Protein 1
Amino acid sequence: MYYDALKTFVTLVETKNFTRAAEFLHISQPSVSVHIKNLEAEFQTELLIRSPKVLKITPTGEILYERAKQILSMYEQTQKDILEHHHDIIGKLIIGASFTIGEYVLPPLLVELHAKYPNLEIEVFIGNTEEIVQSVRLLNVDIGLIEGQTNDRELLVEPFMEDELFIVGSIQHELVSKEAVNMADLQNQTWFMREEGSGTREYLKHMIRSNGLKVKSILTISSNQGIKEMIIHSGQGLSLLSIHTIKRDVQQHNLSILPLSHPAFKRLFSCVCSPVMENKRHVMAFKNILRQKTKL
């Protein structure tokens, strides 16, 4: 079993120093060297380039580093699953969620989850859709909630909710007062967009392309709240945002939905997880609440 050697290798890559790695793992420096030599013999490749001043990882070392992190995570999770098999749902559940879901859809689900399983420690990581998919693939989170789909064939994808998006502007925007807005009215507008990797940005770009819209300018902001604040304070510019993101601001008359004479913009929210995480008891518990509390 190469668990100890893989753990030593990952620690050495991250600390970039044999002495620091030994101190972190509470083993001797010669033991660190032996672990690395054993791995290099096992895989018949040089994993690290050693010099007096710097420690560099080789291309094959990079491959092993990424796989080793996954192997260690799976091994440690298996230990936890076995220990918890006949007990209450305890331990830690790490949920990754895209910004729209994490900030507006997930909170009431977490309240329900905590009320039902008070001994379960819950941790939430919020990022854009691309970041969440990557975190799920690398097993940095147990389950991810994303906007739309993913083409990653290694992951299990299950839609859990339909979302509707609206084009919004400030209450002073010239198009807000029109009885009906058509696509031609959206030519040469300023658009506020989320950052690359965002599901909301991809949907907006698709809408612009598919309708042949010319864009006056684009401002990229990596936050739904930042986009809303820009629209409110500038009085200009438009964006396409989820109803969950804008509902409160529309009710408070801070933002206005354009009366667009166009079919509604709809997409799916999906949960994604690695096959090795699918049957974890706290992942299953969370997915059950997800199904009960959301409608597709």
Protein 2
Amino acid sequence: MAMTTAMILALVVLVAMILMIMFDVLPFGVPPLACCVLIVIFGSVFGDALPELEKPWDISYAFAGFTNNTVWMLAFFMVILAAIQKTQMINRVKDAMTKLVEIGGFKSYVALLIVVMLGASILGMGSTAFYVLIFSLVVTMPYNDKLPGSKLMLPLGIASNHPLIPINVALQYGVAVSILASAGLGESISMMQFAIVTFFLSAGFFVWSVIGYKFLPSHPVAEPTIENAAALSGDGVSAMEPWKEAVTIVSFVVAIVAMMFVDTLGQLSYIIPGVASIVMLLIKVLYFTEFRDNLFSPIILMTAGVIPVANCLADSGLSLMVGNGVASIIGVGVPPFVLLLIFTLLCSTFACFTGSQVGIAMIFAPLAIAVCQGLGYNPMAACVAVVLSAWAGHYMPIDGLPAMAYGMGKYTMAEFWKFTIPQYLVRLVFLCAGALIVFPM
């Protein structure tokens, strides 16, 4: 199949976005917006040469992500997440961890993993505030031979990204749903199905962390800073009135439940998080600046901006052509598990090096879907596995979480890799297996 003008232009947009993300040309969240502008320019300049397109590349097309149901649901939910992090649940997690570290030993290590993973269940995958809190707690603990900080820093930091009970997977779920919609698939996935696959990923992390305990070194970690001490003492967390905290927790639960039943509630499900976020503003749990900054956070800008780029790839036929090409190279005999493992390895590696989980997932998931369609496989498993794999890197200390763990834990690269590389591979194996169990191909 020959490349058309639309395919070439879509490829230019894709490559431009990848390069801007990889080399930090623009601040996080801006590269997709720049590509949206580029789409409009291409549509205006080359419009007459794009007869194969059903929809013109105009402003409404290029910025369609900002009228996407899922994007607004996620944006409002980011506001609720900012509110829930002001509750005393954070302090309760810290108190429980402190007691376990004082006891020490392998059993306390396992219990700490469970405590942090339960915290991640509430705050969700990729919560920067949560893993910074965990690191701050570990460095302020006195050295204990029975459970030194070096055996906690790395596993507990990564545990903050793995919910034990995946009730809050709204961000990753929204990305997956957006990708499926951009690919033109009529089928959908429920948040319950997505949560089950997420549990497999977390189970893989937990299994290796239990095994990998003996591979972790025993030495003191970095000295606490003033900021760490403040985080431990709770100086950064304002005491909230009991009734406000109750309303915040109820709003959080209601929003989660609404998103879980999106297939049943329809439009109402998308807007309930918006109602809950307005409540947070009305009762003054959040100030307007906090509301605004979370509603239009870089992650939301990234999610909304990447949707039109994915649409360009699909509408121009480039995704289908690449998918069919890869399918023909791989051959019809490739097992679905191997196919998923290849794409999850690619996606997680690029996300690990760029630090852009949402952007990279939006790039690789449509390609994985196209390849599955070319091979006649159910693309749902590929979509979910590839999206989740974007948050499953951590084997290079170049992004926020692994970089902080590496530095604050005073690890050598050999010590770091001895734990993270096997963990990385084990997690992807569990992830791919879980995706295929939930969505047989």
Protein 3
Amino acid sequence: MKEQRKRMLDKSILKHAIKDSFMKLNPMIMMKNPVMFVVEIGTLVVLLMLLFPGYFGTGNEMGFNLAVFIILLFTLLFANFAEALAEGRGKAQAASLKKSKQDTQANKLVGDELQVVSSTELRKGDIVMVSQGEMIPSDGEVIEGLASVDESAITGESAPVIKESGGDFCSVTGGTRVVSDRIKVRITTEPGETFIDKMISLVEGAQRQKTPNEIALNTLLISLTIIFLIVVVTLAPIARHFNINLPVPVLISLLVCLIPTTIGGLLSAIGIAGMDRVTQFNVLAMSGKAVEASGDINTMILDKTGTITFGNRMASEFVPVGGVEKAELVKWAAMSSMKDETPEGRSVLELMRKQEYTLDESLAAGGAFIEFKAETRMSGLDLTDGRKVRKGAVDSVRQWIVSQNGSVPADL
């Protein structure tokens, strides 16, 4: 919750919201909200009475008129600020996507040399090399090599996907990360046509369509505004009939107090805030109606569990079998993960530290570390005394044991 408030009160968002609050005073924009448009007309009338007191004969009421003008202007700016602040958070998300796209560096292959360029400079047909830990700069296809790619940011699938040249698993998406090995990628999209570009256009192009409830409420607000406008307009001649003088600023103040100003001012901001709230959960709502419908959802059925995980598989427990002590299991699991840079490998070391186990790295002195590779799906360590430790996919470990011993032990 604190993190959400911090994002909401970001200085850049507040700065743009304040600027937009004044920009939205444009009558062409205010006309979209009839209630606030009536308030703006009243504000302009009071302003004219301040600027030309002699013409209106209000020279003795300057202090009162100034107070009315300031209160009405603040009311307009507050309503505009609430809407601009909600809009600003959506714009900030689009800006964040743009910045991440611009900040991504690519190792472009030019002849036999690699040149570091921005991903925005890549064109269709360019060749780039992407190594372990690097971000794939743009959409393309693998033309050489095999690697494990973390696509959780795009698909939500927690398990890394094997990408290799040829076949059905050669396409890669910009913004995903290579977690092992190295691949050569041919860019297949022009700038502005990538998956991230389409996501940016969706975020920026999402227009707030009014929901049926909002349309009905807006109709009610307009009706109430018209009724109270008639009441205030007829109040002046009635007062003169009884020799009561009601200044125009007083009538305008009365009108603003009677009409549903607060609801009218915050109605659009509430709708935009609802759309922004669902984007915090990586859901893009294209209309207020979609937000309203999501409020009635109690159960969501997904086609895979990966879409509701953290995005990366993580070690959660050490489970010894076959009479092995837990401390012994932890020691060798951590030892075999020292050169495993995948999320799973790093999580093993993190879990060891959380459970307050220590790793004696002197045991690995002089040994040969086996890095995790997509082909083998294993990592491990070959000790100087001849012992070999492996950690990885079950079928890969079994195949390795068969290749070493000729058969699988009965207890496995």
Protein 4
Amino acid sequence: MPTMTLRIPTADGRADAFAAFPDRGEQHPGVLMYADGFGIRPVLREMARELAGHGYYVLVPNLFHRHGPAPVVELPEHIGEEARPAILARLMPLIEAHTTERVLSDADAYLGFLTTRPEVSAGPVAVTGYCMGGLYAMRTAAAHPDQVAVVAAFHGPVGADGPDLFSGITAQVHLGHAEGDLTPEALDELNQALDAAGVSHTSEIYPGTVHGFTMSDTDAFSASGLERHWERLLPLLDRTLADR
């Protein structure tokens, strides 16, 4: 499985990024993958390689490139409950500084970069995101309806911008929520807002999960939640992108 470490020009300097893609000398649909707040690390590289193995060019940018190359904050091999508060204390200022304007400026650069890669086929791409990366994925889709055909967000605060965000989305959407993040009543309200905006979507709570359930290097990890994530994500991508 070929992988690359890249430096992508943005309005605020070069963003380091990780890419994985099949080794078949062909072109493949592009997928922009936004990491969770802990950023690029072995588990994200493994998830990118897993997805690439199904026939996609997967780009994982360093969200906090303005503050240095990934990992911007030193991380242990396993992010447990004891380590989490100190790590989040260092990360929160970076997360708060990553405004909507910065998200969209970077998204322009990342999507533009994908159009230049010889390994990436022409046509729309998918955007996936985890935790806050899920919200960034939704913002990217709303800002680029002509380029983004699929959005998949997992345990992310996708409703944080309010229903106005949804009105710009034309992509097919899947939202996988943690049971610990969203009540059934809140899920109903979110889905009603998506329906009102005309967004074609599936949106569900993954049973027995807490925030961060896809990340195997944290205490939040759920093997069944991660498997459900792949069961929802892969068919969605195949239906929407594989024949392009």
